[in-house]
Amino acid sequence: MTVRMFALLISPGLMGFRNSFRRSRGTKRLKVFALTIGGVLFWFTFFIFSYRILIYFSSQEIIGDILARHLLSMVILIFFSMLIFSHIITSLSNLYLSQDLELCHASPATLPELFLSRAFYTLLDSSWMPLVFGLPVVMAYGLVYGAGLHYYLSLIYASFPLILIAASLGIMMVMVLVRFFPAQRARDITMFLTLILIIILYLLFRFLRPERLVNPDTFVSVAQYLGALKAPDSPYLPSRWAAELLWAKLIGSPMSQMFNDLLLWTTAAALVVIDIWMAGLIYFSGFSKAQEAKRRSRAGRKILEKMVAAITRPLGSDTSSLIAKDVRVFFRDNSQWSQLLLLGALVVVYLYNFSVLPLERSPIKSIYLQNALSFLNIGLAGFVISALSARFIFPAVSLEGNAFWIILSSPLTVKRFLWSKYVAYLMPMLILAELLIIFTNYLLKVTAFMMVVSSVTIFFLVFGIVSLGIGFGAIYPNFKHENIAKVATGFGGVMYMITSSVFIAFVVVLEAGPVYTILSTHFRGEAITYLQWFWIVSSFFLALVLIIIAVQRPLAAGLKALDNYEG
Amino acid sequence: MIVFENLTKTYSGRKAVDDLNLQISQGAIFGFIGPNGAGKTTTIKMMAGVLKPTKGRILINGLDMAKEPSRAKMIIGFIPDRPFLYEKLSGKEFLKFKAGLYGITGDALHERIDGLLRLFELTEWADELIEAYSHGMKQRLVIASAMIHEPKVIIVDEPMVGLDPKGAKLVKDIFRGWARDGATVFMSTHTLALAQEVCGEVAIVNKGRIVASGTSEELGRQAGVRGNLERIFLKITSGEA
Fold first, then answer.
1. Which residues in A lie closer than 8 A to residue B96 (C-beta atoms)?
2. What is the number of CB-based contacts under 8 A between chain A and chain B?
3. B201 and B145 in one domain?
4. Measured in Å, how far apart are chain B's first and last C-alpha atoms?
5. CA gyration radius for chain B?
6. Fewer beta carbons within 10 angstroms: which end of chain A, N or C?
């Protein structure tokens, strides 16, 4: 293996990154700038949040340090798991699916050179984000515990072998997976497993109610409380070694430090060697398998498709064909339909949160609280629908991918194309939003008035949210995506989420005052004055105007953008 | 009939297509040839309504593509150079979807789809997802889909890419059949032998401009070269450069 060949193999990726950065101008540069500002803001918010929590912990006698130590262990475990998953996802494309792999494999580069260059890309791609966003937490630890320079240096010293371990494990798992399944199938399986794991972790975390940990009153004894603090770690976990190493540096204890250092570095070195050895055995056969023709899979006839065809028939054959096509593609593409599981988890947790609200123990009169919560719920449900729209509706235009020429060259106008997408997504979102609102209101046992206000408000909000999703998706289309799930995380997706959130907040704020007036006068048995009526009607009218703007403007802007689209 | 009037397309100040004027009569098979980067695909995309011209206009059977795009597209069959399709649909579903875009439904559609699948030897693969098709099969499916609404004008960019000799002969025969039935075929290609064999008239485009047009014989006279289209093409384009 030569260093020159390795450097040559990694150079296209690095040069591509440099060129795209150097040659970006106009909107692209603005996007980079906006994303950087957003990232920095998020970083500092996360830092301040971590700092506040740690300050709170350190103020707790006896258990403060135990809590902080467990939290460090848990945080590093989470980042370690994220690193492994991130490596699994990126190594699949870097080692098996990238388009430039054919060129590399056809070159005289040796297998270890090729494998290591791709592993290097994987490491860069997968590690920067968890590292950047993990940093605020460990930096907050340093600040709270007044750590010296040696702590900050040890962050680099501990994280490097930890990343190497995560990378080696992730790549190893992928090589084994592709050995048994074709790469395309392995990607589907990995995505599916990752999603399931995220959902399980999310549900577990939520159902464990971690907020109780900061409120020791809810536990009968200190022993029980300390028992509940037990983090899910084990002495065999590399994240635990790194956490112990950092903790020792934090509190200035030399105890067991050397042992953890040795464990981390020797494990990392051993796993790298094992990876290279395994690559020699199974990497090329897996890559070769990934080149073979895809499995022949027959398209079945589905009851759902017939239902969709029946419902959309009155909309015209062009719209009906487009919606039927979208439904088919959605349920045949594992990366799309599997996100429904995430949706399910989100809804379950959302409803669960309402079912465990301790309304009866609240110092505020229950009937006020129930109605206030119900009102707040309009905004929350709106945000849930926005988040789902970012996943499913914002990418709806980009979903056409490279096949968008079919739409452009057909007699279907862009206006009708956007309209079809709008209609297709509006119905399920309306049903979901209404179910969420009605069910949560039922759990809150709200008054009939609040039930009507929240159901009607969410009904109209959904029209705006869906329009914003389709509109922003058309303004920021990505027809050249390799994975549709990534479209939502781009600049356009972020802009959509911000705009949609602001829109919901405005509508809720506009309605809050009038609704409070109606409720309070009702409970006090007073009559509403003319002035109050004027204010109520004006506010609701303004909310309606805002909704109309939110429906009309994004679709019009999206239409203009797609009309001028030049690939 | 296809007409270009002062057709121009500019990308960031650079003219990809520069003031094209052309008239192609009904029933003709017209070849559009030129070196890489000459502006062929840009012209084709503007004709198909996928790209907007910066200046000038395109008339398809008298319909202005800018003013009546839906009506113009209704009579066009477009075959792009790269067969990007909906990979998660089956071949049959794709043809049905394409027919839906042109407002074609009913029982006759199924017969038409079956006929096209038979013609392009895709019957066995009709219910397979497109992701499992080879490049050539995808190309045949795209050509079949362009025929689904029996267009009067066929715009095709590099028709032979990915086709085996049998498929290539089939496509040539189909083009000739369309022209006989009164349809106009506008074909961009690098395969000069194909242009010479199939096209009645040819235009050579270079740096966005038409530098010569006419039958092969007329082009030969213009270039002062005897022989096949390849020699004529090289003489004209190298003279231009």
1. 321
2. 103
3. no
4. 31
5. 18
6. C
Please give, rounded to a whole number of angstroms, the shortest distance from the CA of B42 to a CA of chain A: 10
Residue the block writes with tokens 């239409």: A559
Length of chain B: 241
| Cα–Cα distance, A539 to A532 (Å, whole number) | 11
Residue A164, C-beta contacts closer than 8 angstroms, at least 6 positions apart: A123, A268, A271, A272
Asked whether the predicted pLDDT for residue A306 surpasses 70, the reply is: yes
Residues B228 and B158 placed together within one structural domain of the fold: yes
Nearest 5°: CA angle at A414, between A502 and A424?
Answer: 60
- Residue B80 covered by a domain: no
- pLDDT score, position B1: 86
Cα–Cα separations (whole angstroms), residue A349 to A74, A355, A380, B81: 22, 10, 13, 49
Searching chain B, which residue's CA lies closest to the CA of residue A414? B70
- Inside any domain, residue B16: yes
- Tell me how many domains chain B contains: 2
Residue B142 in any domain: the answer is yes
Q: Using CA atoms, how far apart are residues B122 and B92, in angstroms rounded to an integer?
A: 9
**ipTM of the assembly?**
0.78
Q: Say what the pLDDT of residue A415 is.
A: 92
Best residue of A410, A420, A559 to probe chain B, by most B CBs closer than 10 Å: A410
- Locate tokens 């699916």: which residue? A97
Q: Residues A8-30: pLDDT tens digits?
A: 777 777 777 777 766 666 666 77
Which letter, b or e, does each residue of B118-145 get, where b requires 16 or more Cβ atoms within 10 Å of its Cβ? eebebeebbbbbbbbbeebbbbbbbbbb
The pLDDT value given to residue B241:
38
pTM of the full structure: 0.69
Give the domain extent around B193.
2-75+152-240
A323: CB partners within 8 A, 6+ apart: A308, A312, A315, A420, A423, A424
- Are B98 and A406 in contact by the 8 Å Cβ rule? The answer is yes
Residues B118 and B128 both lie in one domain: yes
Residue type, A322: L
| Minimal CA separation from A333 to chain B, in Å | 7
